[in-house]
Amino acid sequence: MNRYILKITGKRLDTFILLLIRLKINFTKIKETKDYLIIELLEEDYNKLAKIKTTYKIEILKRKGLIYFTHVLKVRKLFLFISLLGFLFLIFLTNIIFSVNIIETDEELRNTIMEDLKELGIKKYNFKVDYKKKEEIEKKILEKEKDILEWLEIEEKGVTYEVKLIKRIKDDTKKETEPRNIIANKSGMITRIEAESGEIVTKKNAYVNKGDVLISGLIKNKEEIVSKTRAIGKVYAEIWYKVSLSLPRTYHEEKKTGNNKKVLEISFLNNDISISDFNKYKNSKDTKTVLYKNPLLPISINLTKKEEVETIDIDFTENYEKNIKPLAIEKLKVKLGNDITIISEKVLKKEEKADRIDIDIFFKVEEDITAYQSLKDFNIEEENKNNIESE
Q1: Which of 14, 152, 173, 249 is the most exposed place for a label (fewest CB within 10 A)?
Q2: Distance CA 73, CA 320 (A)
Q3: Of 46-55, 86-95, 112-121, which one has max mean pLDDT?
Q4: pLDDT by residue (tens digit) across 58-88?
Q5: DSSP 52
Q6: Where are the domains of the chain?
Q7: How many Å is the Cα radius of gyration of the chain?
Protein backbone atom coordinates (compact mmCIF):
# COMPACT_ATOMS: atom_id res chain seq x y z
CA MET A 1 0.00 0.00 0.00
CA ASN A 2 1.14 3.55 -0.78
CA ARG A 3 1.92 5.60 2.34
CA TYR A 4 3.48 8.97 3.24
CA ILE A 5 5.50 10.03 6.26
CA LEU A 6 5.01 13.77 6.86
CA LYS A 7 6.63 16.40 9.08
CA ILE A 8 4.22 19.10 10.25
CA THR A 9 5.71 22.37 11.57
CA GLY A 10 3.77 25.27 13.16
CA LYS A 11 2.20 26.61 16.35
CA ARG A 12 -0.42 24.74 18.38
CA LEU A 13 0.10 21.33 16.77
CA ASP A 14 -2.70 19.89 18.91
CA THR A 15 -5.13 22.05 16.88
CA PHE A 16 -3.78 20.46 13.68
CA ILE A 17 -4.38 16.98 15.12
CA LEU A 18 -7.98 17.93 15.99
CA LEU A 19 -8.39 19.16 12.39
CA LEU A 20 -7.29 15.77 11.04
CA ILE A 21 -9.72 13.98 13.33
CA ARG A 22 -12.61 16.29 12.36
CA LEU A 23 -11.93 15.72 8.64
CA LYS A 24 -11.77 11.94 9.26
CA ILE A 25 -8.18 11.68 8.00
CA ASN A 26 -6.64 8.53 9.46
CA PHE A 27 -3.04 8.82 10.57
CA THR A 28 -0.45 7.26 12.83
CA LYS A 29 1.54 9.56 15.08
CA ILE A 30 5.24 8.67 14.96
CA LYS A 31 6.80 11.55 16.91
CA GLU A 32 5.64 14.79 18.50
CA THR A 33 7.66 17.70 19.94
CA LYS A 34 6.74 21.28 20.74
CA ASP A 35 8.07 22.40 17.34
CA TYR A 36 6.99 19.64 14.94
CA LEU A 37 4.88 16.56 14.45
CA ILE A 38 5.70 13.44 12.38
CA ILE A 39 2.81 11.30 11.14
CA GLU A 40 2.23 8.44 8.69
CA LEU A 41 -0.91 8.13 6.55
CA LEU A 42 -2.28 6.41 3.45
CA GLU A 43 -2.14 8.00 -0.01
CA GLU A 44 -5.89 8.75 -0.12
CA ASP A 45 -5.69 10.50 3.27
CA TYR A 46 -2.68 12.51 2.10
CA ASN A 47 -4.69 13.63 -0.96
CA LYS A 48 -7.47 14.90 1.38
CA LEU A 49 -4.89 16.77 3.46
CA ALA A 50 -3.23 18.32 0.38
CA LYS A 51 -6.56 20.02 -0.57
CA ILE A 52 -6.81 21.82 2.77
CA LYS A 53 -5.48 25.39 3.00
CA THR A 54 -3.53 25.74 6.20
CA THR A 55 -0.79 27.84 7.75
CA TYR A 56 1.06 24.72 8.89
CA LYS A 57 4.13 23.69 6.91
CA ILE A 58 3.72 20.13 5.54
CA GLU A 59 6.92 18.39 4.41
CA ILE A 60 7.11 14.90 2.89
CA LEU A 61 9.89 12.96 4.62
CA LYS A 62 9.39 9.58 2.95
CA ARG A 63 7.23 7.73 0.46
CA LYS A 64 6.43 4.01 0.72
CA GLY A 65 5.18 1.54 -1.88
CA LEU A 66 4.77 2.16 -5.61
CA ILE A 67 4.64 5.93 -5.18
CA TYR A 68 8.29 5.84 -4.09
CA PHE A 69 9.33 4.39 -7.45
CA THR A 70 7.07 6.70 -9.47
CA HIS A 71 8.55 9.67 -7.58
CA VAL A 72 12.11 8.49 -8.24
CA LEU A 73 11.29 8.01 -11.94
CA LYS A 74 9.74 11.48 -12.11
CA VAL A 75 12.63 13.21 -10.33
CA ARG A 76 15.35 11.29 -12.15
CA LYS A 77 13.69 10.69 -15.51
CA LEU A 78 16.42 12.56 -17.39
CA PHE A 79 19.15 10.53 -15.71
CA LEU A 80 17.27 7.27 -16.34
CA PHE A 81 16.62 8.23 -19.96
CA ILE A 82 20.32 8.95 -20.51
CA SER A 83 21.25 5.69 -18.71
CA LEU A 84 18.83 3.72 -20.90
CA LEU A 85 20.25 5.31 -24.06
CA GLY A 86 23.75 4.51 -22.81
CA PHE A 87 22.75 0.94 -22.08
CA LEU A 88 21.16 0.47 -25.52
CA PHE A 89 24.25 1.97 -27.16
CA LEU A 90 26.45 -0.39 -25.09
CA ILE A 91 24.36 -3.39 -26.21
CA PHE A 92 24.64 -2.17 -29.81
CA LEU A 93 28.44 -1.87 -29.57
CA THR A 94 28.89 -5.24 -27.82
CA ASN A 95 26.97 -6.97 -30.63
CA ILE A 96 29.15 -5.56 -33.42
CA ILE A 97 32.19 -7.42 -34.82
CA PHE A 98 35.19 -5.08 -34.78
CA SER A 99 37.79 -7.57 -35.97
CA VAL A 100 38.13 -11.12 -37.36
CA ASN A 101 41.45 -12.85 -36.68
CA ILE A 102 42.38 -16.12 -38.41
CA ILE A 103 45.12 -18.02 -36.57
CA GLU A 104 47.06 -19.43 -39.54
CA THR A 105 50.47 -18.68 -41.07
CA ASP A 106 49.48 -19.75 -44.61
CA GLU A 107 48.42 -16.44 -46.19
CA GLU A 108 46.63 -18.07 -49.13
CA LEU A 109 44.57 -20.31 -46.82
CA ARG A 110 43.88 -17.37 -44.50
CA ASN A 111 42.55 -15.26 -47.40
CA THR A 112 40.37 -18.14 -48.63
CA ILE A 113 38.76 -18.65 -45.22
CA MET A 114 38.30 -14.88 -44.76
CA GLU A 115 36.33 -14.72 -48.04
CA ASP A 116 34.20 -17.69 -46.95
CA LEU A 117 33.44 -15.95 -43.64
CA LYS A 118 32.43 -12.73 -45.40
CA GLU A 119 30.06 -14.61 -47.71
CA LEU A 120 28.38 -16.18 -44.66
CA GLY A 121 28.01 -12.91 -42.74
CA ILE A 122 31.06 -12.85 -40.45
CA LYS A 123 33.02 -9.72 -41.27
CA LYS A 124 34.17 -6.46 -39.70
CA TYR A 125 31.36 -4.10 -38.54
CA ASN A 126 28.64 -6.72 -39.05
CA PHE A 127 26.41 -7.91 -36.20
CA LYS A 128 27.48 -11.00 -34.29
CA VAL A 129 25.69 -14.29 -34.98
CA ASP A 130 24.14 -16.56 -32.36
CA TYR A 131 25.66 -19.86 -31.24
CA LYS A 132 23.60 -22.08 -33.58
CA LYS A 133 24.28 -19.85 -36.60
CA LYS A 134 28.00 -19.90 -35.78
CA GLU A 135 27.95 -23.73 -35.74
CA GLU A 136 26.17 -23.76 -39.11
CA ILE A 137 28.82 -21.43 -40.58
CA GLU A 138 31.62 -23.68 -39.27
CA LYS A 139 29.93 -26.71 -40.85
CA LYS A 140 29.39 -24.97 -44.21
CA ILE A 141 33.03 -23.84 -44.44
CA LEU A 142 34.30 -27.32 -43.53
CA GLU A 143 32.07 -28.85 -46.23
CA LYS A 144 33.13 -26.28 -48.84
CA GLU A 145 36.85 -26.48 -48.04
CA LYS A 146 37.00 -30.19 -47.17
CA ASP A 147 40.09 -30.63 -49.38
CA ILE A 148 42.13 -28.05 -47.47
CA LEU A 149 40.60 -28.03 -43.97
CA GLU A 150 40.65 -30.73 -41.30
CA TRP A 151 38.99 -28.70 -38.50
CA LEU A 152 37.72 -25.15 -37.87
CA GLU A 153 36.34 -23.29 -34.85
CA ILE A 154 35.03 -19.71 -34.55
CA GLU A 155 35.46 -18.35 -31.01
CA GLU A 156 33.91 -15.10 -29.77
CA LYS A 157 36.25 -12.96 -27.64
CA GLY A 158 34.54 -9.70 -26.71
CA VAL A 159 34.02 -7.78 -29.96
CA THR A 160 36.45 -10.03 -31.87
CA TYR A 161 35.99 -13.35 -33.64
CA GLU A 162 39.05 -15.58 -33.45
CA VAL A 163 39.11 -18.35 -36.04
CA LYS A 164 41.23 -21.44 -35.30
CA LEU A 165 41.78 -24.12 -37.93
CA ILE A 166 43.82 -27.19 -38.82
CA LYS A 167 45.03 -27.52 -42.39
CA ARG A 168 44.40 -30.86 -44.09
CA ILE A 169 47.60 -32.67 -45.00
CA LYS A 170 47.25 -34.36 -48.35
CA ASP A 171 48.25 -37.98 -48.39
CA ASP A 172 50.18 -38.55 -51.61
CA THR A 173 51.64 -41.85 -50.46
CA LYS A 174 51.13 -44.56 -53.03
CA LYS A 175 49.22 -47.65 -51.97
CA GLU A 176 51.55 -50.22 -50.52
CA THR A 177 51.95 -53.52 -52.29
CA GLU A 178 54.28 -55.25 -49.84
CA PRO A 179 53.15 -58.86 -49.17
CA ARG A 180 51.84 -59.62 -45.70
CA ASN A 181 49.80 -61.92 -43.47
CA ILE A 182 46.84 -60.82 -41.39
CA ILE A 183 47.32 -62.03 -37.82
CA ALA A 184 45.43 -61.73 -34.52
CA ASN A 185 46.38 -58.86 -32.24
CA LYS A 186 44.38 -60.46 -29.38
CA SER A 187 43.19 -63.87 -28.30
CA GLY A 188 39.49 -64.63 -28.79
CA MET A 189 36.79 -66.58 -30.62
CA ILE A 190 36.33 -65.71 -34.32
CA THR A 191 32.91 -64.22 -35.18
CA ARG A 192 33.44 -62.76 -38.67
CA ILE A 193 36.02 -62.94 -41.48
CA GLU A 194 35.99 -60.37 -44.29
CA ALA A 195 38.74 -61.25 -46.78
CA GLU A 196 39.48 -59.46 -50.08
CA SER A 197 42.75 -61.22 -50.90
CA GLY A 198 44.87 -63.94 -49.34
CA GLU A 199 44.02 -67.42 -48.06
CA ILE A 200 41.72 -67.77 -45.00
CA VAL A 201 43.38 -70.20 -42.59
CA THR A 202 40.88 -70.02 -39.69
CA LYS A 203 37.10 -70.31 -39.42
CA LYS A 204 34.16 -68.88 -37.55
CA ASN A 205 33.82 -69.94 -33.86
CA ALA A 206 37.49 -71.06 -33.79
CA TYR A 207 39.51 -69.87 -30.79
CA VAL A 208 42.75 -68.10 -31.80
CA ASN A 209 45.69 -66.81 -29.81
CA LYS A 210 47.46 -63.51 -30.20
CA GLY A 211 49.89 -63.76 -33.17
CA ASP A 212 48.06 -66.59 -34.99
CA VAL A 213 47.80 -66.19 -38.79
CA LEU A 214 44.18 -65.56 -39.83
CA ILE A 215 44.48 -64.68 -43.53
CA SER A 216 47.71 -65.85 -45.13
CA GLY A 217 49.57 -63.94 -47.83
CA LEU A 218 51.27 -67.19 -48.97
CA ILE A 219 49.59 -68.71 -52.01
CA LYS A 220 49.91 -72.51 -52.22
CA ASN A 221 49.40 -75.11 -54.92
CA LYS A 222 48.66 -78.24 -52.94
CA GLU A 223 51.38 -78.09 -50.24
CA GLU A 224 53.89 -76.00 -52.18
CA ILE A 225 54.11 -72.22 -51.73
CA VAL A 226 54.04 -70.66 -55.20
CA SER A 227 53.85 -66.89 -54.50
CA LYS A 228 53.34 -64.10 -51.97
CA THR A 229 50.51 -61.56 -51.94
CA ARG A 230 49.21 -58.76 -49.78
CA ALA A 231 46.47 -60.15 -47.54
CA ILE A 232 43.61 -57.66 -47.34
CA GLY A 233 40.63 -57.97 -45.03
CA LYS A 234 39.34 -57.74 -41.48
CA VAL A 235 38.77 -60.38 -38.84
CA TYR A 236 36.45 -59.92 -35.85
CA ALA A 237 36.44 -61.93 -32.65
CA GLU A 238 34.55 -62.23 -29.40
CA ILE A 239 36.72 -60.89 -26.55
CA TRP A 240 35.92 -60.84 -22.84
CA TYR A 241 36.51 -57.82 -20.58
CA LYS A 242 35.82 -56.84 -16.99
CA VAL A 243 35.01 -53.19 -16.28
CA SER A 244 35.23 -51.92 -12.69
CA LEU A 245 33.48 -48.69 -11.62
CA SER A 246 33.51 -46.80 -8.35
CA LEU A 247 30.70 -44.21 -8.35
CA PRO A 248 29.17 -41.77 -5.86
CA ARG A 249 25.67 -42.72 -4.76
CA THR A 250 24.36 -39.44 -6.18
CA TYR A 251 25.87 -37.08 -8.75
CA HIS A 252 25.14 -33.46 -9.70
CA GLU A 253 26.57 -31.65 -12.72
CA GLU A 254 25.97 -28.27 -14.37
CA LYS A 255 26.90 -28.15 -18.04
CA LYS A 256 26.87 -25.07 -20.29
CA THR A 257 24.85 -25.51 -23.51
CA GLY A 258 26.70 -22.77 -25.41
CA ASN A 259 23.63 -20.50 -25.51
CA ASN A 260 24.03 -17.08 -23.90
CA LYS A 261 22.48 -13.61 -23.95
CA LYS A 262 22.72 -10.22 -22.26
CA VAL A 263 19.71 -8.80 -20.41
CA LEU A 264 18.92 -5.61 -18.52
CA GLU A 265 17.90 -6.12 -14.89
CA ILE A 266 16.90 -3.95 -11.96
CA SER A 267 18.12 -5.26 -8.60
CA PHE A 268 16.16 -4.23 -5.51
CA LEU A 269 17.27 -5.68 -2.17
CA ASN A 270 17.91 -9.35 -3.07
CA ASN A 271 15.49 -9.47 -6.01
CA ASP A 272 16.46 -9.24 -9.70
CA ILE A 273 13.73 -7.94 -12.01
CA SER A 274 14.41 -8.52 -15.71
CA ILE A 275 13.06 -5.88 -18.12
CA SER A 276 14.44 -7.26 -21.40
CA ASP A 277 14.36 -11.07 -21.01
CA PHE A 278 11.21 -12.42 -22.64
CA ASN A 279 12.35 -16.04 -23.09
CA LYS A 280 14.01 -17.03 -19.83
CA TYR A 281 16.43 -19.95 -19.47
CA LYS A 282 15.36 -22.64 -17.02
CA ASN A 283 18.85 -22.59 -15.45
CA SER A 284 21.68 -20.16 -16.10
CA LYS A 285 25.02 -18.95 -14.82
CA ASP A 286 24.86 -15.15 -14.43
CA THR A 287 27.65 -12.57 -14.62
CA LYS A 288 26.54 -9.05 -13.62
CA THR A 289 27.99 -5.73 -14.73
CA VAL A 290 26.62 -2.83 -12.65
CA LEU A 291 25.60 0.13 -14.85
CA TYR A 292 24.15 2.26 -12.04
CA LYS A 293 23.95 1.89 -8.27
CA ASN A 294 22.05 4.20 -5.93
CA PRO A 295 24.39 5.36 -3.14
CA LEU A 296 21.57 5.57 -0.58
CA LEU A 297 19.06 2.89 -1.57
CA PRO A 298 19.47 -0.87 -2.25
CA ILE A 299 18.72 -0.50 -5.97
CA SER A 300 20.91 -0.91 -9.05
CA ILE A 301 20.65 -1.34 -12.83
CA ASN A 302 22.70 -4.25 -14.19
CA LEU A 303 23.71 -5.66 -17.55
CA THR A 304 23.68 -9.40 -16.89
CA LYS A 305 25.25 -12.05 -19.12
CA LYS A 306 23.23 -15.26 -18.82
CA GLU A 307 24.80 -18.55 -19.92
CA GLU A 308 22.30 -21.39 -20.24
CA VAL A 309 23.11 -24.39 -18.07
CA GLU A 310 21.78 -27.93 -18.17
CA THR A 311 21.62 -29.59 -14.76
CA ILE A 312 22.18 -33.31 -14.47
CA ASP A 313 21.18 -35.20 -11.32
CA ILE A 314 21.85 -38.95 -11.20
CA ASP A 315 21.05 -41.48 -8.49
CA PHE A 316 23.43 -44.39 -9.17
CA THR A 317 21.58 -46.59 -6.70
CA GLU A 318 18.68 -46.79 -9.18
CA ASN A 319 18.20 -47.73 -12.87
CA TYR A 320 21.30 -49.74 -13.84
CA GLU A 321 20.42 -49.67 -17.58
CA LYS A 322 20.12 -45.87 -17.71
CA ASN A 323 22.71 -44.69 -15.20
CA ILE A 324 25.50 -47.27 -14.82
CA LYS A 325 25.65 -49.39 -17.98
CA PRO A 326 26.33 -46.39 -20.33
CA LEU A 327 29.28 -45.32 -18.15
CA ALA A 328 30.77 -48.82 -18.26
CA ILE A 329 30.39 -48.94 -22.07
CA GLU A 330 31.96 -45.49 -22.37
CA LYS A 331 34.94 -46.62 -20.27
CA LEU A 332 35.26 -49.71 -22.48
CA LYS A 333 35.22 -47.58 -25.65
CA VAL A 334 37.89 -45.25 -24.27
CA LYS A 335 40.13 -48.31 -24.04
CA LEU A 336 39.10 -50.10 -27.25
CA GLY A 337 37.73 -47.36 -29.54
CA ASN A 338 34.24 -47.05 -31.00
CA ASP A 339 34.56 -49.90 -33.53
CA ILE A 340 33.17 -52.54 -31.17
CA THR A 341 29.83 -54.29 -30.71
CA ILE A 342 28.56 -55.24 -27.27
CA ILE A 343 27.27 -58.83 -27.45
CA SER A 344 26.22 -59.19 -23.80
CA GLU A 345 27.03 -58.02 -20.31
CA LYS A 346 26.59 -59.31 -16.77
CA VAL A 347 27.04 -57.70 -13.36
CA LEU A 348 29.62 -59.75 -11.46
CA LYS A 349 29.67 -57.77 -8.23
CA LYS A 350 27.83 -54.76 -6.82
CA GLU A 351 28.72 -53.37 -3.41
CA GLU A 352 26.92 -50.33 -1.94
CA LYS A 353 28.82 -48.33 0.68
CA ALA A 354 27.86 -45.27 2.70
CA ASP A 355 28.89 -42.80 0.00
CA ARG A 356 29.88 -44.94 -3.01
CA ILE A 357 28.92 -47.89 -5.18
CA ASP A 358 31.59 -50.34 -6.41
CA ILE A 359 30.54 -52.50 -9.34
CA ASP A 360 32.24 -55.03 -11.65
CA ILE A 361 30.65 -55.77 -15.05
CA PHE A 362 31.63 -58.60 -17.43
CA PHE A 363 31.33 -57.75 -21.16
CA LYS A 364 31.38 -59.96 -24.25
CA VAL A 365 32.51 -57.73 -27.12
CA GLU A 366 32.94 -58.24 -30.84
CA GLU A 367 35.93 -56.25 -32.04
CA ASP A 368 38.37 -56.02 -34.91
CA ILE A 369 41.50 -58.06 -34.05
CA THR A 370 43.24 -57.45 -37.38
CA ALA A 371 47.03 -56.99 -37.27
CA TYR A 372 49.71 -57.42 -39.93
CA GLN A 373 52.86 -59.46 -40.39
CA SER A 374 55.24 -58.52 -43.19
CA LEU A 375 56.30 -61.19 -45.72
CA LYS A 376 58.84 -58.94 -47.40
CA ASP A 377 61.81 -61.05 -46.25
CA PHE A 378 60.03 -64.39 -46.49
CA ASN A 379 61.99 -66.80 -48.76
CA ILE A 380 59.61 -69.10 -50.67
CA GLU A 381 62.30 -71.49 -52.01
CA GLU A 382 63.91 -71.93 -48.61
CA GLU A 383 60.55 -72.55 -46.93
CA ASN A 384 59.53 -75.16 -49.57
CA LYS A 385 62.91 -76.87 -49.17
CA ASN A 386 62.48 -77.03 -45.37
CA ASN A 387 58.99 -78.48 -45.80
CA ILE A 388 60.33 -81.26 -48.10
CA GLU A 389 63.13 -82.09 -45.68
CA SER A 390 60.74 -82.28 -42.74
CA GLU A 391 58.59 -84.76 -44.63
Answers
A1: 173
A2: 59
A3: 112-121
A4: 999 998 888 888 877 777 777 777 877 877 8
A5: S
A6: 3-73, 99-167, 177-249+316-391, 255-313
A7: 40
